[in-house]
Amino acid sequence: MAELLLEVGCEELPAAFVARALSDLSGQLVNALNASQLLGPDHKVVTYGTPRRLIVSISGLLDRQEDTEKDVRGPALKGAFNAEGEPTPALLGFCRGQGVDVSTIRKDDQYVWITKQIPGQSATAILEALLPKTIRELQFQKSMRWGSTRMRFARPIRWLLAVLDGVVVPFDIEGVVSGNESRGHRFYAPAAFAVTSAAELIARLRENFVEPDPAVRKAAILQQIESKCSGVAEISEDLLDENVHLTEWPTVIEGEFPASFLDLPEPVLVTAMAKHERMFPVRDASGKITNRFLFVRNSGEDDTVRAGSAWVLNARFNDAKFFYQEDQKSTLADFLAKTTGIVFQEKLGTVLSRSERLANVARFVAEATGASEEEAELAELAGRYAKADLSTGLVSELSSLQGIVGAEYARAEGMPEAVVTALRHQYAPTKNVSPETDLGHRTGLRLAMADQLDKLAGFLGLGLEPTGSSDPFGLRRCATVLIESAWAWPGALPAYDQLFDFALDQYREQATPLDTAGAHTALWDVFEGRYSALMPEVRHDILDAAALSEHRWELTIPQAVKFRVAVMTILAGRTALVQTATRPLNLVASSRKKGLEYGFDDPLRQIVATDLDSEPGLALLEVLKAQEDDLFRFARERDVNCTVGAVEALVAPINAFLDGTMVLVEDAAVRYARLTLLHAASLQLLAAGDFTKLVIEG
């Protein structure tokens, strides 16, 4: 068994790209090797990554493919032999082209055939083509051209290390030729060095001030923070991961800034340090922010980097202090009025007109979700001032403070704390929320729903829906926020489709023409695509079954979709049950296409029992009537286990009816009653999901 070692060395990748690129590279490489039949049964994949390198090691590769045989069809019999039974030029040419003797051919009723021996290729020969193709196919959020062709990559590739059991796999990408050399740290040990294995590469990298394992770098940063911090470091997982993927040899230092800047609102200090300068804020034992910070350097000397970091942070705080002091001369109402000069979208008006819509939609969402008048007023107030801080100087300087600045200014003006909380969390409404007990979080989720509904209504109404990988207005994220907000909500929610109608109405009241029918269709499309992204672990057929694609508006009830996913996940593996459940669904669908009549609305009340003329039909009717209210209540309450039990109770009577009764009989009254009975059974089954979408295993 052989070991493949691949290292793609490049200019520094953005921190957010490293983990995804490493996962994609290893995954695509394994898939390609598997398709090439080179992966041994006990192969092992190990990955390492830094800003300057993506490393994949795969041990347990076969040295070459196994030889195979392939049946190849030749000319038709009538063209393969002449009247005397001699091979024709066509047959001789075919055999010559395939490299076989004419005596080896076989015949069937129509054609001649040969069995061709296909020798397996060596692993090196396959990898020469496979490795550059895999690297070229990597996709990034943003990429650039740097070579002479049209190839795009996140950053220019500077070296390629590719060896199979120590022997170079030759190829080149944009003039960069593969070899057996790697590089150390850009500043501490930039010289190239040769290696023959993954173990040697990792050891030599560490000798040359590169820690290739992100997990080890993460542990090192945490250990150094603990040992060097004079207080309590504020460590977010996102900021920690960013520093891990910004460095190859991380060293933590502590610095300080003038205490006078502590007069700025705490969120401004924390955001400027963490978001803009990638520093960890430091608090004292009581939790109060201090004038200290922690910074992770990748090179340089401690004192020099400490002084430079403090200088950059001081400049950032100086600007923030100036804009903050200027902002104090105005009120939130003043800032809201100024948003008349900020365009939301050319055809959708200004941010001020949007604020009017948000106030109305937020109130409507609150009322639709069972809010009291007090809570509805809070939602309306939050909607009205949600975007007021876009005209503040502080947000113009630090755009990541959107919402946070509005919340700080709202608190200073004495607005209700629920509104303050809603404004602060409007851009991350489902993070660490407790809407059952926290009025502010409830208000924040309602504001977030209104925000996304307004945006979706406007852009989809203009026909600007996402296409392919293009989503310039972030509409998929809007749907994601709506879905996650519904999942975070403690009680039942109406279909977003209904709330979406109200959002569209707000544009009409502002005389903005929109394609409402097209907007609804586009909304369903966007929602449908988000479930697979948010539930990647769920089988596609189960998602299809849970989505009820024939009733597409139900895609906008995320709680129901998630509930049906849970039910169908339990039932999908029960082959006999799934086969039974598909029978009435398919029969009703087929009859509907044929134009056959049955009782569509409230079917159980439209069945004349005597018209069924079937003892099993009467038994099924009794079961359906007995559990109808309970089953639909279980579905409304998202009770997975009780719904599963109710579906199971239908299996035996459905089988008994369909096995012993002809449904599509000549007698119209009998056929109507029996089809209506099956439609009633179908409706109860659809409360769990569309069983016809499930793929029966085995």
Question: What does this entry look like structurally?
Answer:
- With 698 residues, the protein is an alpha+beta fold.
- The chain folds into 5 domains: 2-64 and 122-207, Ribosomal protein S10 (Alpha-Beta Plaits), CATH 3.30.70; 68-118, no CATH class; 214-327, no CATH class; 336-534, Hypothetical protein af1432 (Orthogonal Bundle), CATH 1.10.3210; 564-693, Orthogonal Bundle (Isoleucyl-tRNA Synthetase, Domain 1).
- 51% of the residues lie in helices and 14% in strands.
- It is built from 26 helices and 20 strands.
- The strands form 6 sheets. Strands 1, 2, 3, 9, 10, 11 and 12 form a 7-stranded mixed beta sheet that branches. A 4-stranded antiparallel beta sheet has the order 15-17-18-16, sandwiched between helices. It has a 3-stranded antiparallel beta sheet with strand order 4-6-5.
- The two termini are 34 Å apart.
